[in-house]
Amino acid sequence: MLDEISLKILKILQEKARIPNIEVARQVEMAPSAVLERIRKMERQGIIDGYEVRLNPARFDRRQIAFIEIRTRSVGDRPDTGQRLAAIAEVQEVHYVAGPDCYLVKLRVADTSELAAIVREKIAVINEVVSTRTTTVLQTYKETARIPIRG
Fold it and tell me: What are the pLDDT digits (tens) for 73-101?
């Protein structure tokens, strides 16, 4: 179980992953070496899964977000199908879901023309895929990978 200090460190790192260790130490009122050891321990334990840079999608002509519900031939998770979907560069998330559809995929593209081409040329050609239903995003109000931390 994580103590209050470790939770506070995680909150700080989620807010700004590139914050200097000495600043984290100042905020939690600990020695920098102790904070660094806590961070390394949380990395080893798999609590901290990694660090990413968030790029501005507009600067890379990737303004369009779409969610695609994918129905497959088999009922149940087919890891090979999930892995093939995950291998598509424009796909940001692949989820095996309950309900009539098997997978929910989030992708980011330049426009609806590119979206149509990906559905037609990269998703529909997967043998296990029976049908797709696409929802395009008109406006995004929140998008984050942050995990709410209580405490």
Answer: 887 777 899 999 999 999 999 999 998 88
Q: Are strands 103-109 and 91-96 parallel, antiparallel or unpaired?
A: antiparallel
Domains and CATH numbers, the chain: 4-44 (1.10.10.10), 57-136 (3.30.70.920)
Task: Tell me if 7 sits within 8 A of 44, measured CB to CB.
Answer: no
Q: CA angle, corner 60, sides to 81 and 97, nearest 5? A: 25
Model confidence over 1-45: pLDDT tens digits?
Answer: 799 999 999 999 999 999 999 999 999 999 999 999 999 999 999
What does pTM read for this prediction? 0.84
Among the listed residues 70, 67, 126, 72, the one whose alpha carbon sits nearest the alpha carbon of residue 91: 67
Whole-number Å distance between alpha carbons of 11 and 53? 17
